[in-house]
Design goal:
535 residues; 21 strands; seven-stranded antiparallel beta sheet
Length: 535
Amino acid sequence: MNFDALKYNYPSQRSVVYAKKGMVATSQPLAAQAGLDILKRGGNAIDAAIATAACLTVVEPTSNGIGGDAFALVWINGKLHGLNSSGPAPKNISIDELKNKGYDEIPKFGVIPVTVPGAPAAWAELSKKFGRLSLEKALEPAVEYAKEGYPISPYVKKSWDRAYKLYKEQLKSEEFKYWFKTFTKDGRPPNMGELWQLPDHAKTLASIAKTNAESFYRGEIAEKIDKFFKKYGGYLTKEDLKSFKPEWVEPIKVNYRGYDVWEIPPNGQGLVALMAFNILKGFKFIEKDSVDTYHKQIEAMKLAFSDGQKYITDYGKMSVKVEDLLSEAYGMERRGIIGEEALMPEAGEPDKGGTVYLAAADGEGNMVSFIQSNYMGFGSGIVIPDTGISLQNRGHNFSFDSSHDNCLEPGKRTYHTIIPGFLTKDNKPIGPFGVMGGFMQPQGHLQVIMNTIDFNLNPQTALDAPRWQWVKDKTIHVEQQFPNHIAQELMRRGHDIKVKADSGSFGRGQIIWKNESGVLCAGTEARADGTIAPW
């Protein structure tokens, strides 16, 4: 990556940041600094990523938690490694079981949509395979913040208020009282700048650290989770927890204009971003702010999403092969569908054969792209008493249609929204990138990488550029600062454009690039409390 060629095309609230010995970029300042502290104490980028991730469960619990899932792309020793630490559905749940209980879909909240949490196992596995420090050392900052308290930052306050209002209106039954006990004080959410303590988090994180996550999956914490689910009619058991192991996977890629764009293979939705790149690489883009550029980006993303939502599920359960969806022939076929007018997206048929993101790098060349989430903010609304463990609701993404690739099945992993990204060129690392935020994530990946490669924007301006988001059919949401004349032109092409006042749904990203001399260059998200901690 030639930093000198990168441009500043958009006004930015922040400056791009450079460093040499290491850096951590994430959505919360205290977590970024915690990761940097671990680097300075002798840890590597992997230790820093673990420390930052654990810290985020404390200082930004509105987006992730101890009871969530995680994925990672790790560059170390000249190779990119992928870790899938998303948990499966419980072994005793099924569509028929839920239908017999009167469900006609998988609910968003409560014990039903909870799948096996993978985040603690991800920390332990990364530490064991690539870390330099012990897990206990890496989790020290998170334990300290949880025990001693931390001041609430602006974006976290805003998200907490939103969740509190929703949960107070909708989560009335007894099993939800522990969320309110853990995340409110005197019947209210925290105030901005208020010192907030999470003592139960501290105890749980200390236990995970001391036992390398064994207590969570095969010890006292697993027993508490099992007991809670038995009491409230859930399906997650200590046997489900005991049998879980994170999976090391081969990352998947598409070559886009000489750069390899890498993602985690399904069940993650990174495949959607790669399919869109595979379509768009057959076009030539001159101007960023032209209606033709935006139109083709949107149409490619709609086509990629329609395929993704039909086929993506647990890797071994897909009815088509990933390599067929990413083939040159299929990319050309889908590219040929794009015309001058907005289309209704439909899946093709190839030949059958709430989230936090962080990027970390050290002075030795190690780099990590890491993402973890509970989903929809705090997740299921379920907190295990006296543990601080807020559980995810990933099971909500399963289809209730037994003929669908992503149908609910016992022990199956669902279509997963969280995706880390990584960029290389000529088998050399450029660096980690990611944009968190539900189904916005592959759309954010597409936009920031095209901003970088096609339009030469530096990491900060690539993130600051106004974003669009395909929602469904021909409906496109755009940010307020999106060029009005482009929006008008897109409407004339048949797109249903809606300007959104709140930028919260357009994702929150981080980027760290490295040049040939080893200098690191980073951008962080102005739409959140984003921070870069450089060294």
